[in-house]
Amino acid sequence: MDKPKIILFICNWGPHAAFQALQDKDADIPAEVRMIRIPCTGRMSKSLLFKSFEMGADGVALVGCEPGSCRYGSGTETAERNVEDMRGILHLLGLGGDRLRLAMFLPDESDALLQFLQDFRDVIDTIGKSPVTPHPRDLSALSHMETARVVASHDVYACQDCGKCSSACPVTLSGKTFSPRAMANAIIGGDLDSPSVVEDVWSCLTCGLCTDRCPSVVNFPDFIREMRHVLKGGGVEGHQSHGGFFQSLMRTMTSPDLSINHWDWLPEDIKTDEKSSILYFGGCAPYFDTFFRHHLGVNTSDILSDSLRLMNFFDIFPAVQPGERCCGHDLLWSGDEENFLRLARLNAKAFEEMGIEEIVTSCPECFRTLSHDYPRAGIPLNVKVTHVYDLLEKEISKGAVGFEESDHKITFQDPCRLSRLEGRPELPRKLLQRLRPRGFKEMQDRGISALCCGNCAWTGCDSYTKALQNKRLRQAKVTGSDLLVTACPKCQIHLKCAMQDPFRGNEIQMEIMDLTGLMAKTIKWE
Amino acid sequence: MATKPKAVQHKEVLITGFGGQGIVLAGQILGKAASLVDRKESTLTQSYGPEARGGACSAQVIISQSTIHYPYVRIPHIVVCLSQGGYDKYAKSIRPDGMLIVDQDLVRISEGSDLTLYRVPATRIAEEVGRRMMANIVMLGFLSAVSDLVTREALHETVVKSVPKGTEELNSTAFNKGHDYGAAILKGMEKKAAGKKGAK
Lengths: 526, 200
Ligand code: SF4
Ligand code: SF4
Ligand code: SF4
Description:
The complex is a heterodimer of chains A (526) and B (200). By secondary structure, chain A is of the alpha/beta class. Chain A has 24 helices and 13 strands. In chain A, helix 3 (75-92) packs antiparallel against helix 14, helix 5 (144-153) packs antiparallel against helix 12 (220-233) and helix 19 crosses helix 21. Chain B has a single domain, classed as Pyruvate-ferredoxin Oxidoreductase, domain 3. Chain B has helices spanning 23-37, 84-90, 122-129, 135-146, 152-162, 168-193, and strands spanning 10-18, 41-46, 56-64, 78-81, 99-103, 116-120. In chain B, helix 2 links the parallel strand 4 (78-81) and strand 5 (99-103). The complex binds iron/sulfur cluster (3 copies).
């Protein structure tokens, strides 16, 4: 068997001297260890730490300086937080948090460093090889043929050059030099190297507002999705948020042998039934919460537990899949169709093995992906896919159920995947109408015309999308509401992120809660 | 379920409302389902008189395991009221351990009785389904959930056979809505009794 691969990231300033001393002494440094010198442990972002595992590392040691001795002041604390979060992610993935270690040594502590490395090697030996199988992507030259096919299949030629898309597009309106029309024309013209292609394809939010306004109904979201795939195949990548961590995470999940722990955090009051033919598909919220724990403090896993509580309220006890993987939405929408397909196949197989007949999900992206994009990609699931809102609406409309009054004035952020792409803005509203808040006021742009939360598929986040989010939050504020109700974990994350803007302060601050949370809190039998 | 009465031995049911609500049809369907499908004995008598022209009217159904010797309802086990007049006239006659079912939007209840009482928005549900006059069918659906006079299947089958051609589907929906409402009410009562009123 292969020897395990251990990466040692070691800070240049302190412990590297200790490492050199070991080398000079020709000490018994484990042969599995590959050393990489870094300027500071604090510079090892979560995505870089994780990337090593995606690429097949069995263990990663991050070695830096004692907190007080960091040359840059706060490097060690940053490293502590990053390592803690990443250990959480490794645990969820079933790789085990112990594969990642942080340690600190002074320049003269070479013996202790050696001891640490030998111990770590033994630990990794005991845990064994990582089940992650990396998939390096084959790149080819940018294909004009492929582009022509994409253009034709979405009938982009039908564009009349009218400019309605640009006047509706929230990215253009945020002030960015970005024009869907110009991008479409450049692509049609085969000008794939122009900035309006190379950059703008990655800036589109795939929100679909333009399609709604376009006289020729040019479907930008679908068109852009496939153009990203073509560009990426030619090595043209866009800017991915958080160093591409989420894409990296999803690609890692394509390894078939992972034993993921998706649900071991689930509160005990919730009942599930592994024999049920109904599966509740939760989505990646536990990863989001772990990743953003020290940054935004989001709690999107509550959406999962509250959805299950609401189902339990109606005596529905679905199965959950302990090894649940990502549905692949963000890979598909950031140009990585190969790995999307890998995930889709693994998921389809798992559902079949569990004997599932119906999948219930509360995430608009999972809903769209499972019900729409899997069959479109040639992976039909022979199951019914239900959004939890449909299930709840059905149960509540049977009668005998009411809601407690709640002391909030609320407004609602439409999830683009459900309200616009699926064309069902009325669905969450039916439920909202049943609630008894102190007030419910819609924002200026709502329903299928709603403004986006500012990001899709962790791609293209920049100061312009921040401006867009600002605008959205102001719209929410103007309603006079004190609670922004959301229906997608991502809306919650991206909008909370925008609220951190130190210059806007209270102007755009607002409490956020998912619709399932508000329902679970107030629902009652009459 | 805990709130259902014990298996039918001999049950007297009174359905009341005003002319035009399909009261007698409801009685017929109930009786037919019990006898022709569930193979029990049943009788139906109906009040005529001035009531048939828009005032209070009633259908009296008896369902029994054995031969019925007297077809009139004396002390009903179950009274279903679709009008205030029917309630005022018949609610008092009900057995102390009986069950009273009213259309909550049409009947105001005078307080203070120990009966099992269900308020059902039957007319409202029927309106949602599409026809106000299907409140009687909604009530039958409800009855099939909260009592064991007849099986749900028997009643549903008889509803579909007895309503005018072309309205089978609507009536079937109305029946199912009534049943779901009844089942939801029972579930709610059970949950509340177990101290689980909400979801958290
Ligand atoms: S709105 Fe449609 S037709 Fe008009 S410029 Fe945009 S893509 Fe072309
Ligand atoms: S999909 Fe949305 S972000 Fe993309 S071009 Fe259309 S309106 Fe702009
Ligand atoms: S809005 Fe914030 S959380 Fe969302 S992608 Fe951008 S930086 Fe990340």
